Amino acid sequence: MSSRRLGAKSSETRSQLIDAADQILKQEGSAALTARKVADKIGLSRHIVNYYFGSMEELIVAILQRDRSNFRELYRAALESDDPLRIITQRGIDISAKNFDLIALAFRYDAVRSELTQAIEEFRTLQTEILTRHLDARGIQPSVAPMVTASILQILSQTISAEAAIGVTCGHDQIRSYIDSWLEMFATKGLSPVIDSDSTRPA
């Protein structure tokens, strides 16, 4: 990863470039992510990207680093909430909106691959800890390990986001409703969506 960056990390312009790149990833995908397009989004010359980031790889890594920082803040808020599962699930859907593009970029850039691997593992670990603390505080013994439930929620979020990105929404409302039912059952009884029986299936 290049080290030609000159601009300060605390710069407002740098933050705006990260915002712009993040929006392009979510709305148009990785193929549209270029220095010119990022700079155009905030009305500046494409050379501004190289001033603050040595390369596009470094810019993408900055997006992931900010996501990790934001999720840590969300994690702390979720611990104080009466409904932490819904908070982390909604945030998971937001992150997943660009996950597949980030995976594609990880095949091109070693630094992105390393950062994305760490980010996914950290997200899942923090989600699992939130689930575990929530159940322990209520004396609930889950039917399935919290890590499994966290993984399933993450995979469902990624699938919904990937389909929505190409215009597929068939069944999404029903899936979200089903997830809501399972979140309620997991929060109160420790039941998980991997359980497939009439006695535990939400109505």
Could you explain how this protein is built, in words?
- With 203 residues, this protein is an all-alpha fold.
- It has helices at residues 12-28, 35-41, 47-52, 56-79, 84-96, 99-106, 110-137, 146-165, 172-189.
- The protein has one domain: Tetracycline Repressor, domain 2 (Orthogonal Bundle), CATH 1.10.357.
- 69% of the residues lie in helices and 0% in strands.
- Helix 4 packs parallel to helix 7.
- The relative contact order is 0.10.
Task: Describe the structure concisely for a colleague.
This protein is mostly helical and 203 residues long.
Q: Work out the number of β strands.
A: 0
Mean pLDDT: 82
Which regions contain 5 or more consecutive residues with pLDDT less than 50? Answer: 194-203
Protein structure class:
mainly alpha
Classify the helix fraction into a percent range.
Answer: 55-70%
CATH class: Mainly Alpha
